[in-house]
Here is the input.
Amino acid sequence: MFFSPCTSPLEPFEYPPWADYGVRVFVKRDDRLHPQISGNKGRKLKYNLAAAKAAGCTRLLSFGGAWSNHLHALAFAAKAEGFTSVGWVRADEGQPLTPTLQDCQAWGMQLHFLSRADYRRRDEPAFLAELAARCGGGYWLPEGGSNALAVRGIAEGVAEVCLDYDVFACAVGSGATLAGIAAGLGEQQRAIGIAVLKQGDYLRERISALLAEAQYPPRDNWQLRTEFHGGGYAKCSPSLRHFCEDVAQKTGLPLEPVYTGKLFYAVGELLRSGEISAGTRLVLLHTGGLQGLRGFL
Ligand SMILES: *Cc1c(COP(=O)(O)O)cnc(C)c1O
Here is the structure.
């Protein structure tokens, strides 16, 4: 497989402003899973690529925005594993390609552009059939790669962590990563997900549905927090920007403001309010996404 051996490092996180909270914090560095296919998007692809291969598909099709970590990972993984790939991008045709899309194209991904209205149809079977017909057919991955096979890949990453801990926390976009963590935790452990989008409440149902689709029993060991979106997806306040810079300067850990920055910032707030209490042992998932930082320079 393209990122075997499929493990990422676990590192202590010693951030001086958190020193008095009496907690132990580790970071699961999925950003270092692979030099290009970083983070949770790599883990979500693993069983999907295996399924595509098993089905005899040679072309992978998916959706994403102009800074999509998913399309970026997919383009590289497809090339490495001998597939062709097609990305349907929510963007206006004729705009200059972002560095993310330039990478995708350089790795052989064929790009097509969809209006916002068409992009909203990305889960309609008839629309998928129409798009597939336009590029010769293939194996569809949903936006973000978020399906039942993705949940399995994430759960596998959780099982790599062999020290004792109480809470496993991650940033939440579609919810597949939080579902995989909930599936992979041991009896006494719980998961906290930090929604990065405004109005993330609908995600709770989605997460339960993903667990069921991946054939895990229902679990109540997870919690989704929807109050830390900071204005919405990809919105970066001065305080969030400052926090990311401060963490990088004091610990050397690179964060980006769309996902991982919001996660660490929110955990800081939960520590400050005492909701995460002294004595708690935490693992924070670094889901990668650092390629997207190029959009903030
Ligand atoms: C996609 C992504 C997430 C969110 O994962 P979901 O499974 O969609 O909830 C978190 N962090 C990064 C860096 C991502 O690219």
Notes: The mean pLDDT is 95. Strands lie at 10-12, 24-29, 59-64, 84-90, 110-114, 139-140, 167-172, 190-195, 222-225, 281-286. Residues 39-41, 69, 144, 146, 171-177, 259-260, 287-289 surround pyridoxal-5'-phosphate (CB under 6 Å).
